[in-house]
Automatic annotation (TrEMBL):
GO terms for molecular function: 3-oxoacyl-[acyl-carrier-protein] synthase activity. It comes from Clostridium scatologenes. It comes from the Bacteria. GO terms for biological process: fatty acid biosynthetic process; secondary metabolite biosynthetic process. It holds the Pfam family ACP_syn_III. Transmembrane segments: none annotated. The keyword Acyltransferase applies. This is Beta-ketoacyl-acyl-carrier-protein synthase I.
Length: 328
């Protein structure tokens, strides 16, 4: 028995914005971000929303698209998890709105999760185990989409210009096959817990603030060296413990936050570019959905096929990281 990642699909904003917009934006502030944006982060363009688009519309579109791809209807799904740093609604849960738009049955677990950029990977791990243990649930829908642009400080060159809009949706299905989640490992390092704060003084002070500047998301400089070394260590141990080799893995799907991070992991582990796609230059950084969009692109390009091993690594502010080994 396994939990199969049966289908995966991606829907993105319809407007394409190039780096030139952001380079010029910060040039007017006497800041040169070209090296940071292009060489460190690896950005080229990103998908943004038009004025008549919303994140909720994008999420619903992705949900409908993956169900159509799977030849399923909303009533066939037993659980839905929506992962986002900033859902359209926190009351009721945005997953309830998705439930309504997808015409799901009454006996469905609806859950919103926020583990920042690691949210969708954590949702995948949790939902895989839930389906294995549940007596009733057989199929689950996971959708991830972030709307960081709504709260980003336009004067913060570390984050403004990094993000794009793309929702990723996937169907998990309990099947009588050797597939799905094989292993996973979390790690937490709170040394940088104060570097990406939102709200900057907590929700207890959010509505009391008279300073508009405090209502923006900002990044303070932080090092990812410890995160990368931990990730490499966990991945190498996990590969060995599960009786396979690095060469047995068809694709490594990493966080798309910065191409420099991927370069460092490739070098440390001896992984080729072909087996560790970087798609942040096309989509921008999409937060929670980013490693699964990399997986989607790898599947679409024929680089990942049924029965292949895939390794996922991503991390979130604070910081929390997760490594997943799965059999597609």
């Amino acid at each position: 028995m396994g939990v199969k990642l049966s289908y995966i699909d991606v829907c993105h904003g319809s407007k394409v914005v190039s780096n030139n917009f952001y380079i010029e934006h910060f040039r007017r502030q006497d800041k040169d971000i070209k090296h940071l944006l292009e060489d460190v982060m690896g950005r080229d363009k990103r998908y943004m929303l038009n004025d008549d688009e919303s994140v909720l519309q994008l999420v619903i579109k992705a949900g409908k698209s993956v169900l159509k791809k799977a030849n399923l209807e909303g009533k066939d799904i037993d659980a839905i998890i929506y992962s986002s740093i900033l859902p359209e609604y926190i009351s009721p849960a945005t997953s309830i709105f998705i439930h309504k738009e997808l015409n799901m049955s009454p006996n469905v677990m609806c859950l919103d999760v926020n583990a920042n950029c690691a949210g969708m990977a954590i949702a995948f791990e949790n939902m895989s185990n839930y389906l294995m243990s549940s007596k009733h649930a057989k199929k689950a829908l996971i959708i991830g989409c972030d709307d960081d642009n709504a709260i980003i400080d336009p004067n913060n060159e570390l984050c403004y210009g990094n993000y794009g809009y793309a929702a990723c949706a996937m169907v998990l299905e309990k099947v009588d096959e050797d597939c799905g989640l094989i292993d996973n490992q979390y790690y937490v390092n709170t040394d940088i817990v104060d570097k990406v704060l939102y709200p900057s003084h907590g929700f207890s002070n959010f509505l009391k603030s008279k300073n508009l500047d405090e209502l923006y998301l900002k990044w303070l400089p932080f090092s990812v060296e410890n995160l990368i070394s931990n990730a490499v260590d966990i991945m190498e141990k996990m590969i060995k413990q599960n009786g396979i080799t690095k060469d047995d893995i068809s694709m490594f799907c990493f966080s798309q936050l910065a191409v420099k991070n991927i370069y460092k992991i490739r070098q440390a582990m001896g992984i080729s570019e072909e087996k560790s796609l970087y798609i942040g230059n096309k989509y921008g950084y999409t937060g929670t959905s980013s490693p699964f969009i990399a997986l989607y692109e790898a599947i679409e390009k024929g680089k990942v096929k049924r029965g292949d091993y895939v390794m996922i690594w991503t991390f979130a502010a604070g910081s929390q990281g997760i490594v997943i080994l799965l059999k597609y």
